[in-house]
Specification:
The protein has ten helices and no strands. The protein is an all-alpha fold. It has two domains: about 5-75, Homeodomain-like (Arc Repressor Mutant, subunit A), CATH 1.10.10.60; about 85-225, Tetracycline Repressor, domain 2 (Orthogonal Bundle). Mean pLDDT is about 85; it is low at about 15-25 and about 225-239.
């Protein structure tokens, strides 16, 4: 015998789940649209000059919708940072970096991470730096991000020191300092955004330079012969 009561209950349950799912998708879609608009406005105007109203106009929503979804400009920036860090390729590289035991391969993975992360998100990182200048809470986030990067640099330097491949007489602390200085977002911005290098050229140069400074390898770029002598600077605006 057909249990019509059970069938009706199942239909109600399905409709409830469907509505909840649709509602969740609508909220996620709205938040994504707002974050996309915020990224453009923050990049164009800078954190201090950006208003919730300007973000709402760019996203094509009401200012109240922005407030309802995020509450503040700082919360938008935090969510934007979390969004760019959830990139699947970046997470895959981080997993390989964490599992790798060969320090020289770990160095290469760290450089690859820089190319992918900055190549897609250097504008967001520069927004963070700009925001930190006017918002103490954001400044704390920047310090935490830099501390985390320095820990990764220290991990690479420690591995190279333990393997005995650092240049004789180069202390592990200075190796960490060199890694920390050259792997910052500003170096990528100056070479790629401002000087017109490709992300691949940046990756090759960074690895070559670090291997020369840390391991004593010859400073010889694999693509030096094919690289133009000079390029016209691109727009100052990070892409």
């Amino acid at each position: 015998m057909v249990d019509f009561h059970s069938m009706a209950s199942a239909k109600r349950t399905y409709r409830t789940h469907y509505r909840r799912n649709q509602s969740r998708l609508m909220v996620e879609g709205t938040r994504h649209v707002i974050l996309t608009g915020a990224r453009k406005v923050l990049n164009d105007r800078g954190y201090g000059a950006t208003t919730i109203e300007a973000i709402a106009r760019e996203a094509g929503v009401a200012a109240q919708t922005v407030y309802a979804n995020f509450g503040s400009k700082r919360a938008i920036l935090i969510d934007l940072l979390q969004l760019v860090q959830s990139d699947a390729e970046l997470l895959e590289i981080i997993g390989r970096f964490t599992a790798e035991v060969d320090p020289t391969k770990k160095l290469k993975l760290g450089v690859s991470f820089n190319r992918v992360f900055y190549g897609r998100n250097v504008d967001v990182y520069r927004i963070l730096v700009g925001a930190a200048a006017t918002d103490p809470k954001v400044a704390e986030l920047e310090l935490l991000a830099e501390a985390d990067r320095r820990r990764r640099c220290g991990s690479i330097a420690r591995g190279l020191a333990r393997a005995g491949v650092l240049i004789p007489g180069l202390p592990q602390r200075k190796a960490t300092d060199i890694l920390f200085a050259l792997t910052g977002a500003e170096v990528f911005h100056l070479l790629v955004t401002r000087s017109g290098w490709t992300a691949v050229e940046y990756e090759e140069w960074l690895l070559m330079t670090l291997e020369a400074l840390l391991l004593g390898k010859n400073l010889e770029s694999p693509s030096a012969a094919s690289r133009p002598a000079s390029r016209s600077p691109r727009t100052m605006k990070a892409r």
